Amino acid sequence: MHLGYLLFVKMIAYSYIRWSSALQTKGDSLTRQISKTREFCQSQSWVLDESLQPDKGVSAYRGKNIAEGPLAQFLEKLENKHIETPCVLVVEAIDRLTRAHWTEAEKIWRSIIDAGVTIASWQTGKVYSPEFMQASPVNVMMFLMELEAAHNYSDNLSKRLTSAWRKKKELAINQGKLLTRKIPGWLAIPDAKAKNDPPECFSVLKDKAKSVKFIFERYLEGAGVDTIVQNLNEKDAATFSNRSRAWAVSTVRRLLRSENVIGTLVSNRYIDGTPHADGNKIEGYYPAIVDKKVFFAVQDELSKRKTQKGSHKKVITLFTGLCKCSKCGWNMALKCGASSKNDDQLPAWAALVCSQAMRGKGCSYQTFRLQDFENAFVTAYLQLLLQIWYRPQKSRNVEKLETRKKEIEHHLENYSASIQQNEGKIPAFVLKKGAELEAELEQLENSLQNNPAPLQPYGYPYQKLQGADMLPIQKNLTNRRLVKNLLPTFIDEIQINAAKKEAVVYNLQINPVTKKRDCLKIRTTKALDEVTGEKHFFLNEKLTFFEHELFWR
Questions:
Q1: I need a labelling partner for 525 at 20 to 30 A (CA). Which of 47, 219, 356, 455 fits?
Q2: Is 257 exposed, middle or buried (0-12, 13-18, 19+ CB in 10 A)?
Q3: Dist CA 59 CA 195 (whole Å)
Q4: Is 45 left (phi over 0), alpha (psi -120 to 50) or beta?
Q5: 322, 369, 319, 323: which is closest to 347 by C-alpha?
Q6: DSSP calls for 452-492
């Protein structure tokens, strides 16, 4: 292969962007990291893939970014070979990946490096490729020392902050001092009162306090949380944040249990970023907005209204982030009932509802049964899902040959770039090494031709399942999560018309002929087929029988 040809072979680089605190979200962390990543990838002649969403306000000290979120999804796809390697994972600094203890950090980076991924830092310019890490134990030690330094910094910072926070709590409890300027949304600390101790330092924002009282009054009158939210939004009641467009169910539900409304400060300690009450309470810390008699009457009512049908199980929908209301464009939200005795993944009743309608902000409140839509969607895209899921597995030998081929092509690209930079003045060792690599590349291409990857026709898995020669996959949480991660690779958006029980599914790829996104229209119905008596749906207005059980059981 000619060296010039390899100028067109580009390495794919995935950018991972993370920052630790919610306060940084308001700053320029995102803009800064994106622009620097783009500049760095351009300097390295890498093709930047920005499909990984940023981890906003997520700490890497306790490994939360590894357990869930964009990086966790990247690692899962890497493990399941849904990402082509070799490739590059670009970060601002190595500690963006993890600040765990080096023994845990080693497992993380080794799983990345061993999968054929190069880790690169645009801040330091260092590139940790698999070849670099394997070349010398010193390189590994330097990498681990950098990770350990990041862990020690976070560990020491955590201890200092914990100690300082403990002293502030003691002053607040014993001497009545102000603990924090982070206060409930219906209060403010004017400059004129800033030097006073609680509760004299606080001023009550009357319009927002009025919303708090309304919530407690309506709940005692028998209204449910959903109804209260709709009432608040219909009357444009003042919210606690200027950025919030509307009241949400979670806000009202949390407020009904908050002792802040009766003037009590409940001290918390944070475990993995989640607040937990530490047992310390300071009564009379805030001005009371709600009478104690009313508050405790609401607590009794909350206990009485608890559902007796069983707890909700974790629901993993296949369509997270894809569904929009066709009427107003807001996201569709999931509305769940109690757990089902027959289905481990979905409750007995689950439906998609326009999130704006749930808040009473103008859109019509209509439900679209999730189970019916999911079964119809899997049937409509059955052959494509089967083809992706049951894609032929390559032999270990073929995988090794292909990996080595990519490595050589990458090396030859670098040699070609060096030749251009030196304006044709080619050192002898470069010519020799280039010739050796080209000879090895030719041998690899011949070997791959003699060991082709297995090919199967598009409908092969479907035919095997129809003939009962192959079993469907297990319908469990792990497989549902994998299917959920597959959908964004070929689905762009799903527009839901809940009133008509319709969904228009837009594909990601643009049709080269029409220059538009192809789409499928799915309409569900409760009616049974007059001839067969079976459940069915309409695919592009054509009557279609369900085949989702061919995919999973």
A1: 356
A2: exposed
A3: 33
A4: left
A5: 369
A6: PPP---TTHHHHHHHTTSSPPBP-SHHHHHHHHHHGGGTEE
